[in-house]
Every structure is written in C-alpha cells, then in structure tokens.
Design goal:
716 residues; alpha/beta; Rossmann fold; Immunoglobulin-like; 5 domains; 8-stranded mixed beta sheet; 6-stranded mixed beta sheet; 16 helices; 32% strand
Length: 716
C-alpha cells in the first residue's frame, strides 16, 4: 500500500518530469523506506561454523600416605600408578588436551609439566577428594582422570560434587587400584571417656579394635599412664573389618594430667604400625563436690547416705532435716532453712531430695531449684519415701524435670512386698557407669543379681522421653512397661536421677561398704555435669576436651561470679586464645539465656601445637584471669584409620558422570579412544545489522540524494 501511495504521489505531483526521472525518484524513496524499515525490524545475521578446539583435561594424583600401602604383589599403590599411568600415557594426554596435573592429599596443587615419577607426601595424613574435584572444576575440563585408592577421609562428600560436575558435562574417569585386597592390619581407634575425672573415681574407657588378616589371633591390649603400664586385657580378634568394642575401667590414684595410651603390639606382617595405639588425656582433680541433702525425717536411707558422703574425701555434704512439727534440726553441717536465693543455692553441685514434702518449700525455692538444674547445670537426685512419695511434685515446676511420670489415679505412695524383691538391670544399666559395681563387667552384672531392692518401692509412671532406665522392678508394671526403679535424664544443662526404692542401705548386709559406697560415689561424680579448672574464685572455664584435631571446633563455657560471689549476668566476657609461637585470638562469649553467670562460645583449631585459653572479664579488671585451659592440637592420622581401597566411591563418580572406571590393562586403550573422539564444537555467531552506523549513513545518503534531485528538477 505504501508503494502504491508513493507511485501515485510522484505520478500526480511530478507530471512535468519525464517517466524515467519519476521512476528514479520512486526507487530512491523506496530504498530509503526499506533501510528505515530494516532499522526498526532489527535484523541479525547468523553465521554457523564447526571448529575443533583443544579441550581442558585434568589428572588428579593422590599423594596421601595410604598410597604407600602394598598391593598383593608387594608393590605400593603409588608404584602401580607410576607403572600404569607413566610419562607415556600422560604425554599422550598432553598432546590431545590442554592438560593439567594436580597432586592432592589434604589440599590440591598443580604440578609443572609431566613429572618423571609421582611421589607420596609423607605429611599427607588425609585425603580430600571433594576439594581436589573442586579445584579441577575451575578450568572447566571436559574430563577428569582420578589416580587414587579412593580412601576419602576429610572434606565434603565427593559424590555431591561429582553430580555437580556431571551436570556441567564433565566426565570423571578413574583408574582401578587393586580391589578386594585388605592389608593385614590392626587399628585401635574411637576412644570415648570423660576428659575430667575425680581422684579415686572409676573412669570408664571405651574403644574399638578393627583388624584384617588376623582373625582368631590372641593379642594383648595394654593401657599405660604416662608411660607406666597400669592394666592389660587379653582378647581374641574376631571377624575381619568388624569393629570390636572394648571396655576398660581405670581408677586414677594421682591428681593432675594423665596421658593414657591404649595399644596392641605391632604384629608380624602388618601393613601399618602407627595405628595400633591411641592416646588420650584425662585431667584428674581433687575438687570436692558440694552436696545438699533435704529430708523430712532421719530414716535409714538418709543416715547411711549421709555417712557414705561424709566419708568420701571428695564430697562436702550439708543437710536440711525438716522434721515437720518440730522444726529443722540443728548442728554442724545442718541448715536451718532451704537456700533463700540463687546465690546460696549456687554453692552446691548436687541436691538430693529425699522423703520430703516439696510443698513445704516456697514456690521461689522450687523455681530456683529447677533453674539450678536446667540453667546452672546442677544435679538433682530424687529419692521418694513412704510418707510422701512423688505426689507432692504434681503441679509444681519440678514435675517437668523428673525422669518419670507421676501416676494420675493412685494416691498410694508406693508398693510393699512381703519379702525383699530383686533388682533387674536393663540393657542400658549393664553398660552405664553409675551401675558399674566392679571394674570387671561380668562381675558387676553378677553383683546386681545378688543385691536386693528392699520391701518398698515408689509408685511411679512410665519413664519420660529422653530418660534412661537403668534398673527396673522384676515383676511390677508402670503402664507401658516395667516399673522404673533407677532412671536418669538430662534436663537442660543438668542431670536428674530418680531412685525409686529406699533399700540401698540394705546392701551393707553381707557386703559392708563395698557396693553401697561405690554406688553413691559414682552417682555423685557422674551427675556433676562438668568439672571446672583453675584456682580463680570468680571465673571458671571448661571445654569439652583438651585434645583436638586440626579443623575441629572447641566449645568453651565460662562460669562468672561477681565480687560478692553471686552469678554475674549480662557482663562482657572474652576468651584470649594463644598458640605457642603463633598468633593470638580474642573472641567474645555469649551469655546463657537462663543466666546463672554462664557464658558460652567456640573457636576453630587452625594450626597444630599447644594452646592456652584465658578469660578476660572487664568487670574484674583488664588483666586476664588466673584460670587457664590448656589444649593440644594435632594433625589427625586419618590415613591410618581406613586402609582399604574405596572402589565403590570411584565407581559411583564415574557412573554418575558418564565416565569410565578402567583397569591398568585398559588404560592405554582408553586414552587412545579419548583421542579418537571428535572434539569439535558448533560455533554460532550473530551480527547485528540494524544498529550499524553504515546502515544509518546509507539511509541518510539516499534521502539526501532524493532531496537534491527534487530541488534540481523543480519539485517542492
């Protein structure tokens, strides 16, 4: 339509011009209109061509210590890598690709050129395959070849990063290190025990032994204390690769730092000898635990409990004997009233509530006691008796922290038997430190079978969620299960113990102090949440242990008192962390939401060595406090924990990415096939025409020419 209008315009308005001139102007006008239309339509010129590029390819070489382990032919895993993927294979890859070679253990680093031979790193105590893959991905490779035994033991999960690389089109290939060969080896590992113990207390030590190649062999596990052998245990090695649990009981006889080493002698033919021993440190303290015992009347249970705690040199006891109708008893170590506030209650580590009606205590006393357990981390032992049972706790704040439910219907405080009933250890009770009456596990179980519970037990409901029932009644039921007689529970930061019978004192008949004193000593020591180090009366520090591996976090607690020895809340509390010969660090601790002068924080171990941790509390001045935590950090010997090639991991990485898992005999052919694959890419180029300066210039020239000719030929 535009063309018809233009032709009509020139035919009607330019009759004086010749036919040739009119058509020339029409063509110029149309050309200008076409150029302007092209500008508005924004045309693009597309060019497609196929090009061949040198793609990036990465070879990852594991140089950790596990690559030194022997194969079935006596050669090491690294020897097999050098023989299979030597200079010829790597040179072939370098001819075909833009090749990068990275060696890795804890960290990955690029090698210059193709080395003559790969060597292991004697300090390569860990293998981070995920970190090596992450470093490889920076060059956007088309493929990655992993030369490793697959013994991943640090860093993120390689499978997750493998899936990410597969999504980007990177194929992961792996060379198979000899599979199914388990090196002859014995490993002692995974020690579990408290970091702080009382002098003379039974310290439970649990560890695991894993072996391969020594099934059925009799070995001796020895435990030394600062180099002095203190006990040995004969054991028969069981099923290969299946962890055997070993339990030991140690009774420290000297206060101070104790460095214990559990070891099995290196056997002939073992692949590695540095994993036959494990060392751990325990701080043995003489600090007295302060115990408050609250009772209504001096019943037999109270009298024998008081005598047991008074004779324990590590325990300081005070009593509140309420005596309804007569008033509290007086005398040495007897209180006239329950602690009036948090400050007075905070002096104690453990509170024992016996057969007392807790409703006689003020509501604020019960609130303080509940906070004492949940926030302060104090311990509570509940020993109901025949007069009041558990019913006084119903409807109070104390009901929430009890390990057992309070029966809803029955008003009986307990159940009487015609004769003494036996005590039944649960599965948890057979393993728990509180119920370990002898250092020998079997002897401890036998002792419980011979001990009686008495003739009365407390009416109680089911154990609450999170409660461990250690001893139960042999035939009475509580609802869903057997009636709990001894149950323990974590309540906030503290521990609560329910003791549901009043016949512990009967244990002295026939056994003297042997079991009765040991039970109470272990119970009191176990229930104390943590022992704080140092001689500072205002600031105490504690951490979860004193030996750490590189990269681990250290969790620290501070208990801070004001100048009147009252818990100091909402203060500035800092940790001053210093590494011997290294940098210093300062962090601020966060106050606990419940108060009680508790502050918490954490920091990460970044270097090996010995650390000292002190507290700085501006309220007490600008000098660091006397309390010092000593921490030792070491590089973890992760390479010694698992000596078996992890072929399953390498296979997974190749399968998820579409790569190949090749044997030594297949590697040369595999590399050749990589070279035969077409490494061409279709490249598409787009060129914008509409925004070209030449197009605008052409439109301007055409319109100018038309205008000049119209003027020259006499048109308006």
């Amino acid at each position: 339509m535009f063309a018809v209008l233009m032709i009509w315009q020139y035919r009607a308005g330019a009759r004086a011009l010749s036919r040739r001139r009119r058509w020339f102007l029409i063509i110029l006008h149309a050309a200008a209109a076409a150029v302007v239309a092209a500008i508005f339509l924004q045309p693009v010129l597309v060019s497609t061509n196929t090009v061949t590029e040198r793609e990036s390819f990465v070879v990852l070489v594991d140089d950790s210590r596990s690559m030194n382990l022997p194969l079935s032919d006596g050669k090491s895993r690294m020897d097999a890598v050098n023989e299979t993927a030597g200079r010829a294979v790597l040179g072939q890859l370098a001819d075909m690709f833009d090749l990068k070679i990275l060696s890795f253990s804890e960290e990955a680093s690029e090698l210059a050129g193709v080395p003559k031979r790969f060597e292991t790193d004697e300090e390569g105590d860990s293998t981070d395959i995920s970190g090596a893959l992450r470093e490889s991905s920076k060059s956007d490779p088309s493929g990655i070849l992993i030369l490793s035994d697959g013994c991943w033991n640090t860093g993120g999960d390689p499978r997750r990063l493998g899936a990410s690389l597969a999504g980007r089109g990177t194929k992961i290939h792996a060379l198979a290190v000899e599979e199914g060969i388990h090196p002859d080896d014995i490993s002692v590992r995974d020690v579990r025990c408290r970091e702080t113990a009382f002098l003379g207390d039974g310290l439970a030590v649990q560890l695991k032994v894993v072996q391969s190649g020594f099934e059925g062999r009799r070995v001796t596990l020895g435990l030394t204390d600062n180099g002095r052998e203190i006990l040995t245990k004969e054991m028969t090695l069981g099923t290969p690769l299946l962890a055997q649990s070993v339990s030991l009981i140690v009774i420290p006889e000297v206060p101070g730092k104790h460095s214990y080493t559990a070891a099995i002698p290196v056997q002939d033919g073992e692949a590695a000898g540095d994993n036959n021993a494990v060392t751990f440190t325990v701080d043995v303290v003489e600090k007295q635990v302060k115990v408050l015992v609250v009772e209504s009347e001096p019943r037999w249970e109270f009298r024998f409990l008081r005598n047991a705690l008074e004779r324990d040199p590590s325990t300081e006891i005070e009593c509140l004997l309420l005596r309804p109708g007569l008033g509290p008893a007086g005398g040495e170590r007897y209180l006239r009233q329950f602690p009036r506030n948090k400050k007075e209650l905070g002096k104690y580590d453990v509170v024992v509530l016996g057969d007392a009606d807790v409703r006689d205590l003020a509501e604020r006393n019960l609130n303080d006691l509940a906070d004492f357990v949940r926030a302060r981390g104090g311990g509570l032992v509940v020993i109901p008796g025949r007069r009041f049972g558990l019913f006084g706790y119903r409807g109070t704040v104390m009901e929430d922290i009890l390990p057992v439910e309070i029966p809803a219907k029955s008003r009986d405080t307990g159940v009487f038997s015609r004769k003494t009933f036996p005590l039944k250890l649960t599965a948890a009770g057979r393993e728990h430190l509180v119920t370990r009456l002898d250092s020998d596990h079997a002897e401890s179980v036998r002792a419980w079978k011979n001990l009686t519970g008495g003739v009365w037990c407390c009416s109680a409901g089911d154990a609450k969620r999170g409660t461990k029932t250690l001893v139960e009644h042999p035939y009475l039921r509580s609802g869903r299960g057997s009636l709990p007689l001894l149950a323990v529970r974590q309540a906030g930061n503290g521990k609560v113990v329910f003791l549901g019978w009043d016949g512990l004192w009967r244990w002295r008949r026939g056994y003297g102090d042997r079991y009765h004193y040991r039970f109470w000593a272990q119970l009191v020591r176990w229930i104390v949440k943590k022992q704080f180090e140092g001689d500072d009366p205002f600031v105490k520090l504690a951490c979860d242990r004193d030996m750490y591996d590189l990269g681990e976090e250290v969790f620290v607690e501070a208990y801070v008192l004001d100048k009147d020895y009252y818990p100091l809340d909402d203060a500035e509390v800092y940790l001053l962390i210093a590494r011997e010969g290294g940098e210093r660090e300062k962090i601020r601790l966060r106050p606990d939401a419940k108060g009680w002068g508790m502050y918490r924080g954490k920091f990460r171990i970044r270097e090996e060595g010995d650390y000292t941790v002190r507290a700085l509390v501006p309220y007490h001045g600008q000098e660091p406090r006397k309390t010092v935590l000593s921490i030792h950090a070491k590089r973890p010997a992760l390479e010694s924990k698992s000596l078996l090639p992890n072929a399953a991991l390498l296979r997974y990485l190749t399968e998820i990415s579409g790569g190949r898992y090749v044997n030594a005999s297949e590697l040369t052919g595999f590399v050749t096939r990589l070279g035969e694959e077409t490494r061409s890419r279709v490249r598409t180029s787009e060129y914008s025409i509409w925004d070209s300066v030449y197009l605008f210039t052409l439109a301007a020239l055409i319109l100018t020419m038309e205008w000049v000719l119209r003027k020259r030929w006499g048109l308006s």
